[in-house]
Amino acid sequence: MDYIAIIHKDPDSDFGVSFPDFPGCITAGRTLDEAKEMAREALSGHIALMREAGEPLPEPSTFDQVMSDPQFRDGTAFLVELEQPAKTVRVKSR
Asked: Which one of 4, 39, 49, 75 has the largest count of C-beta atoms within 10 Å of its C-beta?
């Protein structure tokens, strides 16, 4: 599943990353590449905790939905691609 991340950069700061579909899930990196890698790690960890808690994952927002929100208009959007976890199949043996 792919979710939109927003990169923000102030002149005297690192690259900050937030996720419109996951309020409170934020990260940063000194370089753009580091910020993108940290984004994947932050989102993976956030989703793992949500699954452990039995919380449902939100449907990914569309680009238009995210960019129409004034909170995110000044940022740059990119997709964070996450692999779906393998489904566990229980086999009953005799």
From this structure: 39
Q: How far is CA 80 from the centre of its chain?
A: 6
What residue type is assigned to position 42 of the chain? A
What's the pTM value of the predicted model, to 2 decimals? 0.82
Q: How far is CA 76 from CA 5, 12, 90, in A?
A: 8, 17, 43
Asked whether the beta carbons of 5 and 45 are under 8 A apart, the reply is no
DSSP classification of residue 92: -
Residue 20 has pLDDT above 70, yes or no: yes
User: Could you tell me the strand order of the sheet in which 2-9 lies?
Assistant: 26-29, 15-18, 2-9, 76-81
> Could you give the domains of the chain?
2-81 (3.30.160.250)
Place of tokens 């996951």: 22
Give pLDDT tens digits for 65-92. Answer: 999 999 998 999 999 998 765 455 455 6
Q: 67: Cβ–Cβ under 8 A, 6 or more apart, which residues?
A: 73, 77
